[in-house]
Amino acid sequence: MTNHVLLDNVSHKNLRVKPTFRPGHGYDSNIARVFPDELLVLQNEYPLFLFKNRETGHFEPVALFGFSDRENLYLHEGRWDADYLPHSVERQPLLIGFQEQTVDGVPTQEPVVHIDLDHPSVSESEGMPLFLPHGGESEWLERMTSILMAIHEGHKAIPPFSQTLVGMELIESVSLDLKFEDGSSQLLKGLHTIDETRLAALNGAALESLHKDGFLHAIYMMLASQPNLEKLIQRKNRALMAAAS
Fold it and tell me: Which of these, 37, 31, 65, lies nearest to 150 by C-alpha position?
């Protein structure tokens, strides 16, 4: 369950956030939406794919954390076992909401910060304060607000990125037929990736267009992330062996 409310320094003056990276603490997901501006750093840590959003029809970049529902292989002994947290993970329990405000006499939906009061990381006794004693934002909240704004801008970048990939027929579906060291196997469907054959066949004008729009770099970062899939499989093997011992 979630309980999203508008964050304010009066009602929530005593709130603190203590992320605990263990199963059952709000980070149990095998996949997370990521954004084009993050891909340069993300490709060092995670296997990156595309996932079709059924509501919008757009193909969105995602980072893979595990192979089954709610399996996150980056949760390790209360910490996140990677050097970089995707924005969509790090921002929890905060999120972007919208509030109608009048701008130059015109009603406008402006982004504002919300908080999920039911998120396991929220308390009044442990963790990082959201507000200073006299009501100003803490350094942690200032950082999270900047991350939320980056997410807001990242959402805007996804539709043109997806439309370009679709228009150039650069997306192909993938099925991951996985074999693990304990003899078990798993078939993971629903992911997509860049069609390298079609990418290699693009002419100079098409490549220049991709480069101009900033999409060529994003494409190569996604392709560069593929060796991380084998690393994720090894994480799974270690988890299986630990569970069996």
Answer: 37
The amino acid occupying position 139 is: E
Whole-number Å distance between alpha carbons of 216 and 209 = 9
The amino acid at 136: G
Q: How far is CA 18 from each of CA 10, 33, 79, 125, 128, rounded to the nearest angstrom?
A: 20, 22, 12, 9, 6
Q: What is the C-alpha separation between 101 and 3, in angstroms, rounded?
A: 23
3-state secondary structure of 199: helix
Reported as a single tens digit per residue, the pLDDT across 217-241 is 999 999 999 999 999 999 999 999 9
Measuring CA to CA, which residue among 182, 180, 175, 228 is closest to residue 65?
A: 228
Give the pLDDT means over successive 10-residue stretches in the chain (245 positions). Answer: 90 94 91 96 98 96 95 94 96 90 76 93 94 92 96 95 97 95 94 97 96 96 97 96 88
Neighbours of 162 (CB within 10 A): 20
Q: Which of 141, 103, 111 is nearest to 12 (CA)?
A: 141
Give the dihedral of Cα atoms 218, 219, 222, 225; nearest 10 deg. -100
